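If you are new to this repository, start here. Below is one unmodified record pulled from the training split, so you can see the exact layout before writing a loader.
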Amino acid sequence: MIRGSRTIVRPVEDRDFPLFHEWMNDPDISWWMDYEGPFTLDEIERDIEKAHEEGLPFTIEFESKPIGRIGLNRFRQQSRVASTYLFIGDPAARGRGLATDAMTALLEFAFNDRRVRMIDLMVLAENDAAIRTYKACGFREDGRLRERSWKGDHWMDHLWMSITAEEFSALKDPSSGS
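And here is the target side for that same chain:
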């Protein structure tokens, strides 16, 4: 269990599957996460099994209630790089800084406990709320992949973002001089 200042990031449990099923089939989530659903409950269970094989999937809790999903995957051992993902599934929990809190807690865990050197992610370039969250956590834009997803009536770019352990440490302790 990883504690943020307001959230708890805990390992995924079987009881989370119905919520993940609901959230991942929510048009607001599937649109911005670039999912190609809809998903059955069996597909969600297989997705979590795969997430366990390839990384560390977590459930975000706020006030003892699951509100979203976060995780680390695509670990590259030699370079000590991993990827991350995040969504807040509970609409009542959006826009309250909980995603930033959970991501900050996950970054602290990854850099300090797992000794990861860099964390990266991809986000739809028009997902302003997510980009604000990632920038608030210290992520920087590394590049833009043009026209990667067809969304509604137009092509949408993806942004590649990352943060290093040193950048995160400097963000947490501005006096470090980095």
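Two things worth knowing about this chain: The mean pLDDT is 94. The longest helix spans residues 98-113.
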